């Protein structure tokens, strides 16, 4: 009996320090950052009960007010013939060449061939009694029908090469943006402004059966259906913006018709394009390379803002203007006394050593 009593006393002596330490460990976790299951417990205790929470999430507008889209500007319009109105110098040059010399060359050549064909079919028809010519060589005709097409091609090639040279010889960039295509959305990274990233998805229609409760839906201010996005690619007006275009999965194509911009986004490769837009506003495009089942649901919305508003937008996203020093990190707050003092758990081996030695 004495041996049993001694064993019980020794067991109580061994367990007493451990029991005393256990609550201190929990207190230390509560004073500092909670870990493990305690995180969920504390969040649940501090959170607003589900009954008090609003029934729906925010559906109005994003944190930074977006510029309303202007009907007919930077978007396709019904019953329009020809190219969209161009809002870059390069696009205006290309549209002038397309709608001017190139179009008139096509019209003149087509009419000439049509008239010549109709004349020969009627004038030299078999019913009129004409026999086919036996001419096998005619030096003048051979020179003419060889030289004239060459001159036409040269007339087209010279302005075309000048246009391509201007497109692929960009001026020094004021801003660089990385454009990444995904199945089936776009993301935009701003390495010159802090490296933040924006993920852009198409806005669904109000009556879309897949629209979740509280999810933001498209309005007329956002832009046309299937072209409006929840987050826009924002660039400053009057600045040269360089795009580094790539893909995460399959081949996409970054295209904004009003900027005369279309560049493939290839996985494992970075292509380059640039724009300089002077007119603030909202301009729309979409993926122009068949990229899978939801290829038609990859719109692009570009918002051009004056420089002051662009800097304000950067600040709303946590970014900084190019060349500006990043904001100084706040000084770390003083650690609570409970964290400053070594936790009692560290002393646990010393407390248990006598019991171990007795065992």
Describe the structure.
With 359 residues, this protein is α+β, with helices and mostly antiparallel strands. The protein is built from 7 helices and 10 strands. α1 runs antiparallel to α7. The longest helix is centred in the first third of the chain and has 35 residues.
Whole-number average pLDDT? 79
Q: How helix-rich are the residues, as a percent range? A: 25-40%
CATH superfamily of the domain at 175-316: Cupredoxins -  blue copper proteins
H/E element order: HHHHEEEEEEEEEEHHH
Give me the CATH architecture of the domain at 175-316, please.
Answer: Sandwich
* Strand portion: 15-25%
Give me the secondary-structure topology.
Blueprint (H helix, E strand, L loop, with lengths): L1 H30 L5 H10 L42 H35 L15 H29 L7 E8 L2 E6 L5 E5 L32 E4 L3 E8 L4 E5 L4 E5 L5 E6 L4 E7 L11 E7 L1 H10 L20 H4 L7 H11 L1
Parallel strand pairs: 1-5, 4-10
Antiparallel strand pairs: 1-2, 2-3, 5-8, 6-7, 6-9, 9-10
Helix pairs in contact: 1-7, 3-4
Question: Key terms for this structure?
Answer:
359 residues, alpha+beta, Immunoglobulin-like, five-stranded mixed β-sheet, disordered C terminus
């Amino acid at each position: 009996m004495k041996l049993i009593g001694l064993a019980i006393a020794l067991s109580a002596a061994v367990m007493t320090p451990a029991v005393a330490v256990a609550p201190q460990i929990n207190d230390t976790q509560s004073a500092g950052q909670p870990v493990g299951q305690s995180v969920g417990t504390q969040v649940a205790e501090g959170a607003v009960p589900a009954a008090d929470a609003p029934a729906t999430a925010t559906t109005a507008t994003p944190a930074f007010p977006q510029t309303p889209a202007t009907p007919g500007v930077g978007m396709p319009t019904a019953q329009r013939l020809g190219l969209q109105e161009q809002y870059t110098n390069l696009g205006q040059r290309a549209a002038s060449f397309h709608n001017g010399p190139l179009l008139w060359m096509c019209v003149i050549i087509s009419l000439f061939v049509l008239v010549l064909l109709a004349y020969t079919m009627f004038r030299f028809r078999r019913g009129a009694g004409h026999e086919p010519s036996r001419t096998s060589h005619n030096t003048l005709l051979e020179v003419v029908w060889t030289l004239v097409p060459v001159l036409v091609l040269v007339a087209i090639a010279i302005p075309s090469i000048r246009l391509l040279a201007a497109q692929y010889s960009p001026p020094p960039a004021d801003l660089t943006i990385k454009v990444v295509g995904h199945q089936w959305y776009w993301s935009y990274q701003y390495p010159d402004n802090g490296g933040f990233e924006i993920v852009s998805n198409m806005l669904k229609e109000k009556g879309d059966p897949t629209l979740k409760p509280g999810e933001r839906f498209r309005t007329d201010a956002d832009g046309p259906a299937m072209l409006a996005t929840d987050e826009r690619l924002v660039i400053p007006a009057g600045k040269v913006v360089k795009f580094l275009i790539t893909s995460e999965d399959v081949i996409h194509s970054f295209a904004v018709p009003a900027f005369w911009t279309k560049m493939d986004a290839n996985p494992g490769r970075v292509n380059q394009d640039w724009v300089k837009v002077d007119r603030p506003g909202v301009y729309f495009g979409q993926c122009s390379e068949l990229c899978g089942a939801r290829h038609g649901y990859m719109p692009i919305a570009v918002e051009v803002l004056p420089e002051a508003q662009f800097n304000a937008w950067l600040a709303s996203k946590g970014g900084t203007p190019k060349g500006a020093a990043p904001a100084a990190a706040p000084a770390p707050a003083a650690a609570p006394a409970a964290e400053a003092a070594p936790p009692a758990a560290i002393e646990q081996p010393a407390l248990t050593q006598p019991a171990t030695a007795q065992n």
